[in-house]
Amino acid sequence: MNGTRRAEIKPGVRVVIVQKQDQRTGRLTEGVVRDILTKSATHPHGIKVRLETGEVGRVKRVSG
After folding, report:
1. 32 pLDDT tier (thresholds 50, 70, 90)
2. Which of 7, 44, 49, 61 is buried most deeply by CB count within 10 Å?
3. Could you list the residue range(s) of the whole structural domain that residue 34 is in?
4. pLDDT at 1 (0 to 100)
5. Can you spell out the DSSP letters for 8-57?
6. Has residue 64 got a pLDDT over 80?
């Protein structure tokens, strides 16, 4: 799953995100979703989430 559909992402799911400051380098961060920040059903660049660590970014893929 590539993270562009909100229905695929729930709190507690492990995901891989790209943070705003890492968009140019493509550095990815893995973590567990705490909050879903995107309100629309889909987003072409990935659904924006907050991880349990407090990091915010767009989902690139859903790990589990």
Report:
1. very high
2. 49
3. 6-62
4. 81
5. G--TT-EEEEE-GGGTTTT--EEEEEEEE---SSB-TT--EEEETTS-EE
6. no
The pLDDT of residue 26 is 93
In this prediction, residue 29 carries a pLDDT of 97
Q: At 31, list the tokens.
A: 């973590």
Residue 2 CA: distances (Å) to CA of 7, 15, 25, 26: 12, 10, 19, 15
Indicate the DSSP class of residue 5.
Answer: B
Q: How many CB atoms lie within 10 A of CB 47?
A: 25
Residue 53: give its domain's CATH number: 2.30.30
Work out how many domains the chain is built from and give that number: 1
pTM of structure: 0.93
Residue 1 included in any domain: no
Decide if 12 is inside a domain: yes
